[in-house]
Design a protein that fits this description.
By secondary structure, this protein is of the alpha+beta class. The chain contains 4 helices and 6 strands; from the N terminus they run αββββββααα. It has a 4-stranded antiparallel sheet, sandwiched between helices. Strands 2-3 form a two-stranded antiparallel sheet.
């Protein structure tokens, strides 16, 4: 319910929204079943829009140049991937330039550190306080193979 707001909508090509992005969103729903908590941050990049679309009031809306997701999973009793060595946490990022996709969503995956560098956002800023800087650095810099 919290995602059904106009602020959570952007113009997106059908070749992205109905294929690669939809497949990724299905995977996120599946992954959520394996965690006690799965934090999901989704956004778009509008620094250099690829054009404009017009809403029902004929107002121009910037078309994002890319979309991203940052995921942080937590298990109280860690058994997934690297979670036994990171106090129950594991993370992954995804970056999709605004184009059509087919194939594996994992081709667009990266570490949280790499995604942060790409979009200029510091995700999960409270993680170091929760588990310590060393473990938080490990979570954000590791590509856990579990996410496949």
């Amino acid at each position: 319910i919290q995602t059904f707001y106009g602020t959570n909508m952007t113009p997106q090509k059908g070749s992205l929204n109905q294929k690669g992005w939809a497949t990724l969103e299905g995977a996120v729903r599946d992954w959520s079943r394996g965690f006690d908590t799965l934090y999901v941050v989704t956004g778009c990049v509008v620094d250099e829009p690829i054009g404009v679309a017009y809403d029902n009031d004929n107002k121009a809306v910037s078309v994002p140049s890319a979309y991203f997701k940052a995921l942080l999973g937590y298990q109280k009793n860690p058994t997934i991937g690297t979670t036994p060595t990171t106090n129950g946490y594991t993370a992954i990022g995804f970056y999709y330039p605004h184009e059509g996709y087919s194939g594996s969503y994992m081709a667009k995956s990266m570490t949280i550190d790499a995604l942060e560098k790409k979009v200029g956002i510091d995700f999960f800023v409270n993680l170091p306080e929760s588990i310590g800087k060393t473990l938080a650095d490990k979570v954000e810099s590791t590509m856990d193979p579990w996410w496949k």
